Amino acid sequence: MISKYVFALGALACVGLTVDAQPHRYEVTITNLTRGQRFTPVLVASHKEGVKLFELGAAASSQLRTLAEEGDVSPLSMLLAADPSVGDVKNSPPPPPLTNLIAPGASVTVEVNAGGQFDHFSVAAMLIPTNDAFFAVNGMPGPKGNDTITYLVPAYDAGTERNDELCGSIPGPGFAECITPSNPAGNGGGAQVGGGEGYVHVHAGIHGIGNISAAVRDWRNPVARITIRRK
């Protein structure tokens, strides 16, 4: 079995691979490469060439905004499922239990059907604790035959919310920085604060300007390894 590694930056990386004409089941394995971020439920889709979750430098859709700010993949999943250019859409299981969040160093595998014209893949999920950071494979080719293809992907900023790094602005459970007498579980608030840059761009990381500790939560790209192989 051949493994091909590609660093994917939005839609800029190109590889000359296509999925076989016959439909097959594919395993898409997502591994968290960060030290202090967890991944929310992951969206995985197979589709025709040309389908994109976003364009770098352009405004995020409302569905992508929901994924990036709230970790909710449902609106974007429904949008893709209604698109005739999309072959299959699946999500990794959400909490509870909290172990369904993908911890640093952990992996989750999602299976989708692909083949024929539906020979490209997209993958996305939110990083927590952040305001609106997400990782993505954005409409990239899948493997050919029994090859395995691996994408190393950065974190993106949806540009829909200013990065105040405050507990009240960030969704999710169990952040040590957010523990107080009235919030012993350290849960985030998830308020929509707005005031973002207005376009999707490569995320600049955590700077420690609010409650969230840069020493614990910051990262260097890539943040995720996405491996796609035919079963």
Protein architecture, described:
- The protein is mainly beta and 231 residues long.
- The chain is built from three helices and twelve strands; from the N terminus they run ββββααβββββββαβ.
- It has helices at residues 62-70, 74-81, 214-217, and strands spanning 3-7, 24-32, 38-39, 43-47, 86-91, 107-114, 120-128, 133-141, 148-153, 155-157, 201-202, 224-230.
- α1 packs antiparallel against α2 (74-81).
- The longest helix is centred in the N-terminal third of the chain and has 9 residues, at 62-70.
Task: Summarize the topology.
Blueprint: E1 3-7, E2 24-32, E3 38-39, E4 43-47, H1 62-70, H2 74-81, E5 86-91, E6 107-114, E7 120-128, E8 133-141, E9 148-153, E10 155-157, E11 201-202, H3 214-217, E12 224-230
Parallel strand pairs: 1-9
Antiparallel strand pairs: 2-6, 2-12, 3-7, 4-5, 4-7, 7-8, 8-10, 9-12, 10-11
TL;DR of this structure?
The protein is mostly beta strands and 231 residues long. It is 9% helix and 31% strand. It has helices at residues 62-70, 74-81, 214-217; strands spanning 3-7, 24-32, 38-39, 43-47, 86-91, 107-114, 120-128, 133-141, 148-153, 155-157, 201-202, 224-230.
